[in-house]
């Protein structure tokens, strides 16, 4: 396994995890798709989209961005609108006069970087967003399952980062189970929503 999220091996690992037969039979992503839809993000800029798992649920007009060209190739092969960070920068050499997207989604992204890198990522993409930022991070047990994770973030940490870049925290939730489950259940997530003032 590669500890580099830009590698082809990392993209293959995402595909293998998503395609596990037991996950397909049980449709384990159903509650997560439901949760994503209920957030009402509208047209979304999905930064760190990986192979496009969330893009399949987001509304039409959403765009995925990822620094891993192999992951983007998989997302595009699924018919999803996804580009590399370099392609995004080529499309948008300067921030737009009017934001193009309703929301910014960072799902399982910030834990792969330092806090300062995370702040930089938020600042980089905020000019493209009109109203909402949604951040989803694994809780303790999930954090330990990936060697590419760099920084553990709980709800207070995430809200603090969002507030540092000028947003107002709307909600901090644990999903799908209460917060204490995150110490044992790999797939428990912290979901934080914040809005532009």
From TrEMBL:
Q: Where is the Methyltransferase type domain?
A: 45-115
Q: Which regions form coiled coils?
A: none
Any single GO molecular-function term of the entry would be: S-adenosylmethionine-dependent methyltransferase activity
InterPro entries per record: Methyltransf_11, SAM-dependent_MTases_sf
Sorted alphabetically, which keywords does the UniProt record give?
Methyltransferase, Transferase
Gene Ontology biological process terms from the UniProt entry = methylation
Q: What domain of life does the UniProt record list for this protein's source?
A: Bacteria
Q: What is this protein called?
A: Class I SAM-dependent methyltransferase
Q: Which organism is it from?
A: Nocardioides islandensis
């Amino acid at each position: 396994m590669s500890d580099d999220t830009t590698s082809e091996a990392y993209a293959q690992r995402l595909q293998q995890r998503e395609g596990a037969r037991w996950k397909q039979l049980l449709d384990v992503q159903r509650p997560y798709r439901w949760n994503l839809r209920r957030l009402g993000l509208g047209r979304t800029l999905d930064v760190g989209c990986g192979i496009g798992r969330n893009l399949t649920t987001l509304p039409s007009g959403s765009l995925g961005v990822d620094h891993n060209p192999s992951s983007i190739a998989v997302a595009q092969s699924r018919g999803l609108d996804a580009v590399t960070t370099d392609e995004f920068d080529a499309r948008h050499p300067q921030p737009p006069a009017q934001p193009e997207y309703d929301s910014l989604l960072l799902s399982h992204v910030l834990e792969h970087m330092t806090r300062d890198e995370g702040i930089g990522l938020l600042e980089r993409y905020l000019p493209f967003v009109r109203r909402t930022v949604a951040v989803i991070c694994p809780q303790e047990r999930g954090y330990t399952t990936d060697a590419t994770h760099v920084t553990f973030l709980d709800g207070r940490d995430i809200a603090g980062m969002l507030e540092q870049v000028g947003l107002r925290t709307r909600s901090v939730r644990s999903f799908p189970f209460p917060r204490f489950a995150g110490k044992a259940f790999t797939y428990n997530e912290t979901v934080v929503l914040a809005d532009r003032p």
